[in-house]
User: Fold this.
Amino acid sequence: MLDVAEERAQAAMGHWEARSLGVVRAEAAAEFARAAGDTAPALVDPADPAFVVHPMYLVSLLRPEPGVEPDELRPDGMYRDEVPGTDGLDVRLMAGGQAVRWVGEVRVGDRVEVRRAVTAVDRKRPDLLLITVEKTYAAERGPLAEVTLIEVTERFIVR
Assistant:
């Protein structure tokens, strides 16, 4: 199975795909901040005049609302297509690190799209594969303007 995952991930290298994450809603962002343990009114109370979206909120989004179809999930609860090359394979997945670069301010009402591409596939041992994915989160700000909000490098361990 690992050979198939490696072959698929190699084939996806450099091919950017996009997914809409929908519109940033104040209450959803505040709910995330509360779940993360924050208590600052500017992060947890949308009625606060200084309210801002938690910096990690967008990075936590994998799909737009509402709900998840059962066939979208792996038995371990991850989305089937979250780790390129592994959809439908009986492999174990683990997070292998994440680097986040904040480029712009996320605002309530932003319509956000995430783009991703596999940028590296490394076989570390016969039973260990490391897949690196670059992601860019961007928002539409007017009919002709797009603003990059966050850039992320994620590594996934596949066994």
Remarks:
- The mean pLDDT is 90.
- The beta strands are 17-23, 93-102, 111-125, 128-140, 146-158.
- The chain has four helices and five strands.
- The first helix runs from residue 2 to 12.
